[in-house]
Each structure stands twice: as structure tokens, then as C-alpha cells.
Specification:
Blueprint: H1 15-45, H2 59-88, E1 95-102, E2 105-110, E3 116-120, E4 142-145, E5 149-156, E6 161-165, E7 170-174, E8 180-185, E9 190-196, E10 209-214, H3 216-221
Parallel strand pairs: 1-5, 4-10
Antiparallel strand pairs: 1-2, 2-3, 5-8, 6-7, 6-9, 9-10
Helix pairs in contact: 1-2
Bound molecules: dinuclear copper ion.
Dinuclear copper ion binds at residues 101, 104, 161, 196, 198-200, 204, 207.
Domain Cytochrome oxidase subunit II transmembrane region profile: 1-91
Keywords: Copper, Electron transport, Magnesium, Membrane, Metal-binding, Mitochondrion, Mitochondrion inner membrane, Respiratory chain, Translocase, Transmembrane, Transmembrane helix, Transport
Domain Cytochrome oxidase subunit II copper A binding: 92-222
Length: 222
């Protein structure tokens, strides 16, 4: 989870999030190079004196600074497309979790695992234990097996919500009347926190998501 003064991305807990971080760093590197170059050129412009009477056109430089940005954009667009299709791939999930957004809590259904159904409410600050995380902990966590491909179906009962777990690289809108699908693979045990990220009403900030990732044999006994 994110803690104090962490302005970057959280440590990944899934292969897809790892790829997203690689792409973020790649795009940021290109962004920094362009910013430095343009910043340098703009700075040097202050010291320019217009003394060349014969400078009317420069076909070569125009060609270069038209084609070069297009090539640079390709270096961002192609890895971006690769990632887009990677995120959309469904790799034979071993179980399905359904999460339904409500104002303002999530409810979950394990339709192919003992037909478990429950609601997951945020723990209010006055009921929080000393080791709990304020505005982030819930009364009923989502328990999921690690090292297995999980499909998640997201929908909503009233308004649009968004089921978002930064460490897993998952962000899916829950829309009334629709069923959205994504999948992920958790590669380590632990607690992964998330929040609704679609402005869904007065208590939008108070419908967090907690995933408890456990080894598969623990999960089967649950
Ligand atoms: Cu649900 Cu914001």
C-alpha cells in the first residue's frame, strides 16, 4: 500500500502492474529528454541576436523537426498498444469474483466458489483498532488465492463506481446495467488496498477495497 511521502507508484503485486511500471518509466524518460532539450533551446533563445540577413528558410531543419517527433511518438505508441492488448487478455481464469458497487460500499459474489456473498463496508474512524488504516480498512476483506489467474466482473447497482487496486494494476468501472470484465494474477501474499475512483456521490471517498492474498491451500480451506 501507499504510505507517507510516497509520490510514485506502489510496488507491484502482479505481472501486469510490473509491465505498467516499466511503460511509465519508459514514457517518463522520453518526457524528461524532450523537456530538457526544449528547455535548453528556449533558454538559449534569450541570448540570440538576429544578425543573419540571409536566413530566410531552412528546409533541412524543418524536415528533421517534423519527422523526428513522429518517430519519438512511435516509440511510445507501440509499447502502449502492446500493454493495452496485454491488459485485455483473459488467460484461462481459475476462479471468478464478482464485485458490485453500491452507494457507498462494495458487495462481492464468489459464484463458482461455495456461492459466497457478502458486503464490504469501510470501518469508521471511531471503530478502528490501533493497527487499522483510517479510511482504508473494511469489515469484510476480499480473500483471493495468490499465484492463480483471477477473473473479476464489475458492475454497479445505482451509479457508476470504479473498482481500483493500484498494486494490481486493476481499474474497472462498475456501470449499472453493464458487466465489465478484467483479470489479474497476484504474485505475492499480502493486503492490497484500493478505493473507488469514480465520483459516485457524497461518500465516494469511503468505499475502499481490501484484498487479502493468501496461498491457494489456505484459500480452499476458507
Ligand atoms: Cu463509488 Cu466513488
Amino acid at each position: 500500500m501507499s504510505t507517507w511521502a510516497n509520490l510514485g507508484l506502489q510496488d507491484s503485486a502482479s505481472p501486469l502492474m510490473e509491465q505498467l511500471i516499466f511503460f511509465h518509466d519508459h514514457a517518463l524518460l522520453i518526457l524528461v529528454m524532450i523537456t530538457v532539450l526544449v528547455g535548453y533551446l528556449m533558454f538559449m533563445l534569450f541570448f540570440n541576436s538576429y544578425i543573419n540577413r540571409f536566413l530566410l528558410h531552412g528546409q533541412l531543419i524543418e524536415m528533421i523537426w517534423t519527422i523526428l517527433p513522429a518517430i519519438i511518438l512511435l516509440f511510445i505508441a507501440l509499447p502502449s498498444l502492446r500493454l493495452l492488448y496485454l491488459l485485455d487478455e483473459i488467460n484461462e481464469p481459475s476462479m471468478t469474483l464478482k464485485s458490485i458497487g453500491h452507494q457507498w460500499y462494495w458487495s462481492y459474489e464468489y459464484s463458482d466458489f461455495n456461492n459466497i456473498e457478502f458486503d464490504s463496508y469501510m470501518i469508521p474512524t471511531n471503530e478502528l483498532s490501533t493497527d487499522g488504516f483510517r479510511l482504508l480498512d473494511v469489515d469484510n476483506r476480499v480473500i483471493l488465492p495468490m499465484n492463480s489467474q483471477i477473473r473479476i466482473l464489475v458492475t454497479a447497482a445505482d451509479v457508476i463506481h470504479s473498482w481500483t487496486i493500484p498494486a494490481l494494476g486493476v481499474k474497472v468501472d462498475g456501470t449499472p446495467g453493464r458487466l465489465n470484465q478484467t483479470n489479474f494474477f497476484i504474485n505475492r501474499p499480502g493486503l492490497f488496498y484500493g478505493q473507488c475512483s469514480e465520483i459516485c456521490g457524497a461518500n465516494h471517498s469511503f468505499m475502499p477495497i481490501v484484498i487479502e492474498s493468501v496461498p491457494v491451500n489456505y484459500f480452499i480451506k476458507w
